[in-house]
Amino acid sequence: MNLFDPMVLMWIQVATGFMGALTLLFVGRILGRRLGFGLDIRAYFSPSGGARDALLRILNKARREVLVQTYSFEDEALLAALVEAKKRGCNVEVILDPHHEKISTSDFKFLVEQGIDPWLDVEAHVNPQVVLIDGKVLITGSYDFTPQAESEFVQTLLILRGNPDLIRQYRDQFFTHKSHAKPSHKKEEEKLRLAA
User: Fold this and answer.
1) Which of 59, 95, 117, 152 has the smallest set of CB atoms within 10 Å of its CB?
2) Of 82, 53, 86, which is closest to residue 96 (Cα–Cα)?
3) pLDDT digits (tens, 9 = 90+) for 120-172
């Protein structure tokens, strides 16, 4: 085979162009995912399936906003990540189930002490497990943000990026629930103190 044959050279050029196009497509997809374009869905499972670590990584990357809607939020490492996000200047808002009003739980107390005053959804029992990060990342599933979730329970955690319409729907739903939620005891006590 003569490598300088025009037909062989043409096929070498076609193959090189094809491989170059595939490389650009591959690199473009990676860059798109990193910049928030293109659908990226990751699933994690528990027990011991990396769900907690994945959630911590994303919480630690939050820059503007962290919205949480859940029954309770008891995992100490995840609570600490929320506090760190607030210290970095993120707007951190949490809606919890109204049972916290009657039973002063450790996660409720900790959040209030750290200046993250949770809202209590008094019109409905809060069962979804939802975290929204910077309006770009949606985290949901059955994973319930407790220590047992990672070590004992069989649960799932889905992390979705690149679907702005879906994320907007979840964000709108969060603020719908917040609109009828009740502020924490600390906010109520502060309002009464200022009114007196």
Assistant:
1) 152
2) 82
3) 888 777 778 999 999 999 999 999 888 888 888 899 999 999 888 999 999 99
Do 31 and 54 fall into the same domain? no
Pair (27, 63) in one structural domain: no
Averaging pLDDT over each range in 23-32, 98-107, 177-186, which range is the top one?
Answer: 177-186
* 170 in the same domain as 91: yes
CA 7 → CA 12, 16, 18, 196, distances in Å? 9, 14, 17, 92
- Note whether 145 and 73 are same-domain residues: yes
Q: Per the structure, how many domains does the chain have?
A: 2
Contact predicate 177/69, CB 8 Å = yes
Query: Which amino acid, residue 100?
Result: H
Looking only at the bridges linking them, the beta strands covering 40-46 and 155-161 are antiparallel
